[in-house]
Amino acid sequence: MLVVRNLHASIEGLEILKGIDLEVKAGEVHAIMGPNGSGKSTLAQVLAGREAYEVTAGEVLYQGKDLLDLAPDVRACEGIFVAFQYPVEIPGVSTQYFLKTALNAIRKHRGQDEIDVVDFLALVKDKLKLVDMDERLLNRAINEGFSGGEKKRNEIFQMAVLEPKLAILDETDSGLDIDALKIVAAGVNQQRSPDRAIIIVTHYQRLLNYIVPDFVHVLVDGRIVKSGGKELALELEENGYAAFEKQPVIAAG
Amino acid sequence: MVEVKDIQDVYTAAFQQREKEFSAGGGAWLLPIRKAAMARFTELGFPTKRHENWLFTNVAPIAQTAFQPAEDRDAEVIASEVAEHVFDTDCCRLVFVNGRFSSRHSAVQALPEGVKVCSLAAALRTDSKRIEPHLTRHANDQDNAFAALNTALMTDGAFVHIPKGVVVEQPIHLLFLTVGGEQPEVTHPRNLIVAETNSQATIVETYAGGGGGEVYLTNAVTEVVANENATLRHYKIERECEQAFHIATTHFHQYRSSNVTFLSIVLGGTLVRNDIYAILDGEGCDCSLNGLSMLSGTQHADNHLWVHHAKPHCDSREFFKGIYDDQSHGVFAGRIFVEKGAQKTDAKQTNMNLILSDEALADSKPQLEIFADDVKCTHGATIGQIDNEAIFYLGSRGLSKQAARSMLIYAFANEMISEISIEPLRARLSELLFDRLPQTDMLRETV
C-alpha cells in the first residue's frame, strides 16, 4: 500500500530525513521507534503533506500513486489518516459538524452519497464507545478544553469514523497514563483489518504491549537503521537506543 | 469640488420647503424642536476627521453629495423584494419604502391587547400625547450632526408601544427598503420604541436597498425606552446596496432592572456608521450590545458604542466582531462611562477582528472613563488571521483549503448569531453568511 524510497526531507534548510526506505502492505501494523530528534514525527508530517517540510529527494507511492503530488485534503480523501501528536484546538467548530463535513468530503471523493443526519448520529454514537468517550463531546468545539488524553482519544475516534486505508499514529501514546493508553490501544486494535495498514510512530515500547506490531523499524538520525519483528521492540526496551546511535553512518551514494 | 456649505443649503432648503407640512403633521411641540435641530446641524456641519469620534471614518463622500429627498417609489416594489427580507411570515411587519409607510407591503397581525405598532407619522397625528415625552428626548442631536439632521427632516418610521406587563411573543419586524433613483437620494427614518414596566418584546430592524447599484443615504435614528423591568431584544440588520451610505443612531434609555440585548449585523453599503448609545439610568440594569461586521471590497464600517453607567449595580457587555477582506476597513470604538455613584458596575468590552487579506484594516479603540471606585471594568481586543494550523488539521480530514477557510470564517461569525432567539431569523442570517463564503455547499445545514 505504501512504498517509501530514499526519502529525504528538510525543514528551514535543515535535513531531518536522510534516506528512508519503507514498505507497508495492507493488513500490516508497523512500528517506527527512535530517540528524540530522529525524525519520527517528521516522517508522519511529510506523509500528511505539511508544507513546511521540503522533500529534497526520493519518492512515496501510495497505492501506486505519487503521494507527494497530492494536497493534504486529497490524501485524506484517498484514505490516509494521521493521528497527530499535538492536535490543534479549533474554537467555534463543533466536533460533530466538522466530522460530518469531513466524512461527506471523503464520500463525495469516492463517488458516494452524503450521509444523512440520522445515520451519521448512529455511526458516531457507535464509534464513541470504541474510545469510551461521552456523547457530549460531539457538541463541543474540536479539542477545545480537552485534556491530553481526550485529545488523543478524539484522534482515534475520528479514525474510526473516517475508516482510512492507511493510518499513521504520531506518538499517540505520549503523555497518556496507563488507563488512557489501554483505551486508545483497544480503539486502534478494533480497527485492525486485512484492508487497513497502520504505522505507529512511538518513542516508548509500552504502547506496543497493547498494539502488537508485525514489524518494528528503528529510526535514528533520519535513517531506518534496523528492521525486525515485534521482538525488536522488547530489545529496545531492554537496551535503549544507545547501540543504534553508535552505529557508523553509511554515506549515501 | 462642491462646497460643503452649498450642500448644507440643500438640506436647509429641504427643511424650508416642508415647514408647513411639519407644522401640520401633529403636535405644535415638535416644530420648535425640528427648527432647533436644523440650526444645530447647520452649526455643526458634517463631521470631519478633526472630530475625535470620526477619526477613522471619512464622511466627505456624504458631505460633498447633494442628496435629494427620496421619491415615492412604493409602486415599484414587488412582493418578492419584500419577501427576500422576511424571515417569518407570521410576525407583525411594518414596511417602509423610501422612508414612507407602505400599507400594501405591511402585515400588522393580531397583537396582544393594547400593543401599538404603527407608522410614526400616523401616531403623531392621533397619539401625540404618548409620543411627546419620548420622541427626540433621548437621541443625541447636540453633538451628532446626522441625528440632528434626522430630527429636523424626519418624515416617518415606526412607533411601537408595549403596555405594562404585556409580553409580545412574535417578533415585530420593521423593514426599511430603499429604491434609488438616477440622482443620489436621502431618507431619514425615525423610530420610537417604548416598552412599559414589565413588558417584553423583540424588535427586528432591517435596512435594505434595491440591487440597482444606486447611490443613496439612509440616515436613521431609533430611540428605545426600556422602562422598569422591561426586557427587550433588538436586532438590526443592515443590507443596504453596494453604493449606499448608512448612518444610524440607536439610543437605548434603560430604567431600573430593565434588560436590553442588541445585535447589529453589518453586511452591505459602501460606508456604514452605527452610533449606539445606552444609558443605564436605574439600578440593576443589564445591557448587552453585540455586533458583527462582515466586509469585503472597499467597504467601510464603523461601530461607535457608548455605555453610560449612571446608577449602581448595572451590568453591561459590549461584544463586537469584525471580518475584513480585500481592502475593507472596520472600526470599533467602545466607550464605557461610569459615574461616581455607579458602584458595583460590572462592564465588559470585547472586540475581535479577523483579517483575511493583506490590505484589510481593523481599528479598535477602547475608552474607559471610570469615576466610581468599586467596579469591575474589563476590555480586550484581538486582531488576527486565519489559523494555518487549523487549516492543515481540517485538510488532513478531507477539507479543501478553501472549504476549511470558509468553515473557520463561518465559525468566527457564527458565535454572534448562534444566540439569536428567533430561529427563522438565525437560520436566514446563517444562510447569508454562507452565501458570502466560497465552497460552502458541504458546510451548510447541520450546524
What does this protein look like?
The complex is a heterodimer of chains A (253) and B (447). By secondary structure, chain A is of the alpha/beta class. Chain A has one domain (2-245): P-loop containing nucleotide triphosphate hydrolases (Rossmann fold), CATH 3.40.50. Chain A is built from 9 helices and 12 strands. The longest helix of chain A is centred in the middle third of the chain and has 15 residues, at 95-109. By secondary structure, chain B is α/β, with parallel strands linked by helices. Chain B folds into 2 domains: 4-281, no CATH class; 387-447, no CATH class. Chain B has 10 helices and 21 strands. In chain B, a hairpin with a 2-residue loop joins strand 2 (92-97) and strand 3. The longest helix of chain B is centred in the first third of the chain and has 21 residues, at 4-24.
List keywords for this structure.
heterodimer, A: 253 residues, alpha/beta, Rossmann fold, six-stranded mixed sheet, four-stranded antiparallel sheet, 9 helices, 12 strands, globular, B: 447 residues, 2 domains, eleven-stranded mixed sheet, ten-stranded mixed sheet, 21 strands, 23% helix
Brief digest:
The complex is a heterodimer of chains A (253) and B (447). Chain A is an alpha/beta fold and 253 residues long.
Which runs of chain B of at least 5 residues are low in confidence (pLDDT < 50)? none
Q: Tell the overall outline of chain A.
A: globular
Query: What's the Cα radius of gyration of chain B?
Result: 21 Å
**Biggest interface, and residues per chain?**
A-B, 36 and 25 residues
Percent helix among the residues of chain B? Answer: 10-25%
Count of helical segments of chain A? 9
Number of helical regions of chain B: 10
> Assembly type of the shown chains?
heterodimer
Please report which band the strand proportion of chain A falls in: under 5%, 5-15%, 15-25%, 25-35%, 35-45% or over 45%: 25-35%
Largest sheet of chain B: 11 strands, mixed
Distance between the termini of chain B: 51 Å
The computed structural class of chain A is alpha/beta
CATH class of chain A: Alpha Beta
The spatial strand order of the largest sheet of chain A comes to 6-9-10-3-11-12
- Average pLDDT of chain B works out at 94
> What's the pLDDT, averaged over the residues of chain A?
92
